[in-house]
Predict the structure of Heptahelical transmembrane protein 4.
Amino acid sequence: MGGEAEIKERLQPKSETTEKKQHNVKGKKLWQKVKYQLVEYHALPAYLRDNEYILGHYRSEWPIKQILLSIFTIHNETLNVWTHLIGFFLFLALTIYTATKVPSVVDLHSLQHRLPDVLRKTDLHKLHSDLMSRLPSSTPSTWHVMELLYNCLPERFSHGNSTDMCVLHSVREDLANMIAPLIFRPITRWPFYAFLGGAMFCLLASSTCHLLSCHSERVSYIMLRLDYAGIAALIATSFYPPVYYSFMCDPFFCNLYLGFITVLGIATVLVSLLPVFQSPEFRVVRASLFFGMGFSGAAPILHKLIIFWDQPEALHTTGYEVLMGLLYGLGALVYATRIPERWMPGKFDIAGHSHQLFHVLVVAGAFTHYRAGLVYLKWRDIEGC
Ligand SMILES: [Zn+2]
């Protein structure tokens, strides 16, 4: 067949073939333009109709290739995709930062503040031998440390110029980071990583959902389930750092709260994923599960405040947790009321509609929770049990 076509093509005058080809390409392009044009709300199939105040700029039942490319074009889901995609990369960066930097960076101020107290409890002979064993003599970094220690000699700083002050600062920081692990045993990080993982899963699932849902009814159905599962995972894993680090010295309450939220989280994910629970009569069950999960966070936080009312870290973290609650609450309010597009339908199709505001508030709430997590880590690294 290929050979025959080639002979036919050869028999035809060259200019005519080129013209035909150009015509075909033009036609194809025009057809694609018409086919993949953004449509208005009233032209959507029923399963894609969700917000009647967003009037236009919808993608409707496009092939996957066009949908994937649409991540770089303007339509009413562009910012919904990007707000959570950027959020995902933010949490990926925070996870890498936490894994590489947080355990080795000790706050000098709090170290100095607590050192005398800790030293009283520490076996100084053991500390001395530990410290000496941590100063090997052959690696290049040792030279650095030895040089810094040498620079520590008082006569080098007697003039007190700014370069010396810089070196002094660096020496102090290096020494602090060297001595700190000998005195303070960093506590386990898994509850914090569980939260970071939950946040990344939620943000990526949501972003994917907004990008792909317009493909077909089947894909839309699957994506929406995935989005629900992501939200359940974020809520459940958000409990892990506050509960674990607040009650790590009290295994009964630690296991009680962690067990409760894990069972509730798994139940919510399953309810979100199983088709049998999708029928309207389960709508109330689904909604109650999400609300129940969110509100059950108040119990361990109040409990923490009662036990540690005199600890500044308990108040500090509660401040962050209240701020997170406000951000999520405001997000839910905006989401439910469809403000501002309900006031000016069609004016916020591309930018500024409620779902985009909701996305930004979710990322801000999760980031607040991350900050609270850092306070917990520092608190427990220094205090232990
Ligand atoms: Zn969303």
